[in-house]
Amino acid sequence: MSLQAYTVEQVAEILSIGRDKVYFLIRTGQLRSIKIGKLRRITDRHLAEFVTSLEEPSLEEAKR
């Protein structure tokens, strides 16, 4: 099994958003991450789950 772990800066670049926004998404639980010592990493699985959550319609949208 191969698993890629990205830095916050790498994820910001991948998503074309700022570093602070990535930390906000982590802090609010929208984007999962892991800690290795003092280092924060986002795995490719976490990133895929986050993008999928953006693509899935919310319950409110589904009711319309």
Model description:
The chain is of the alpha+beta class and 64 residues long. The chain is built from four helices and three strands, in the order E-H-H-E-E-H-H. The protein has a three-stranded antiparallel beta sheet with strand order 1-3-2. Strand 2 (34-36) and strand 3 form a beta hairpin. Helix 1 (8-15) packs across helix 2. The model has no long low-confidence stretch (mean pLDDT 90).
SSE diagram, text form:
Blueprint: E1 5-6, H1 8-15, H2 19-27, E2 34-36, E3 39-43, H3 44-55, H4 59-63
Antiparallel strand pairs: 1-3, 2-3
Q: Termini separation (Å)? A: 41 Å
How would you write the strand order of the largest sheet?
Answer: 1-3-2
Tell me the fraction of residues in β-strands, as a range: 15-25%
Which sheet architecture does the biggest sheet show?
A: 3 strands, antiparallel
Nearest-integer average pLDDT: 90
Over all CA atoms, what is the radius of gyration? 13 Å
- Shape estimate: globular
Structural class assignment: alpha+beta
Following the backbone from N to C, one meets helices and strands in this order, namely EHHEEHH
Record field, number of beta strands: 3
Number of alpha- plus pi-helical segments: 4
Portion of residues in helices?
40-55%
Poorly predicted ranges (pLDDT <50, ≥5 residues)? none
